[in-house]
Amino acid sequence: INPHFLYNTLDAIIWLAEAGEQKRVVGMVRNLSDFFRTSLNQGKDINSIKEEMLHVKSYLEIQQYRYRDILEFEINIPKELSGIPVPKLSIQPLAENALYHGIKNRRGKGKILIEGREEEDALVLTVSDNGQGMTPERLHEVQEAIRTGERAGFGLAAVAERIALYYGPGYGMKIFSEEGKGTTVEIRLGKNIQPKS
C-alpha cells in the first residue's frame, strides 16, 4: 500500500472535517475502512471477485475526492462472476497505474473502465484508461519488465508475477497502449485457484 496514498487521504479527510463536510468525511472514512479491510483480508492471499471489486471501488472513490475534476470510473463485472476466487490485489494496482500514469498526465477529464468476462477456460479482466498512453518505446520497456519479472513496469510486474505463480503457462498479463489515446491492461486468470496454506 502506497504510504503517500494514506497520507493524502488523511489530509483530505482533515480538510473536509475542518470545512464542515460531514457527509463527505463519513464517505471517505467508510471507503478507507473498506479499502484496508479488503487489503488485509485476514492475512489470506485469495479474494473473491466481489471483494476485489469492493477494494478497487473504495480506492477509486477516495481518489475521486482528490481528483474530481479529472477522474471518472466505471466497473462492469457480471454478477455471476462475483464468487470466483482470484489472487488478492489483482485489480487495484492496475487502476492505480491507470490513474497515475494515464489520467493524471492528460488534459481534461479522464476515465478508467474496469470490465470482466468469462471465457471457456479463463476469467479475463481489463482495466482501460483514455489517458496519455505510451510511446512504442515505453510500451516495449514495460512489456519486457513484465515478461522478465523486473519491477520497472509501474508495479504491474508484481501482479503478473503472482498470476504466473498461481496459474502457470497460458495465463498472465497483456498491455496495449497508444500514445495520446490510452492504455488497456488485460489479465487472464484461471477460474479455479487453491488458496496457499
Observed structural traits:
single chain; 197 residues; alpha+beta; 5-stranded mixed beta sheet; two-stranded antiparallel ribbon; 6 helices
Q: What is the compact description of this entry?
A:
With 197 residues, the protein is an alpha+beta fold. Helices cover 46% and strands 23% of the residues.
3D architecture notes:
This protein is of the alpha+beta class. Helix content is 46%, strand content 23%. It is built from six helices and seven strands. The chain has helices at residues 3-18, 22-40, 49-66, 92-103, 136-148, 156-167, and strands spanning 46-48, 71-76, 85-87, 110-119, 122-129, 172-178, 182-189. The strands form two sheets. Strands 2-4-5-7-6 form a five-stranded mixed beta sheet. It has a two-stranded antiparallel sheet with strand order 1-3. A hairpin with a 3-residue loop joins strand 6 (172-178) and strand 7. Helix 1 (3-18) runs antiparallel to helix 2 (22-40) and helix 5 (136-148) crosses helix 6 (156-167). The model has no long low-confidence stretch (mean pLDDT 88).
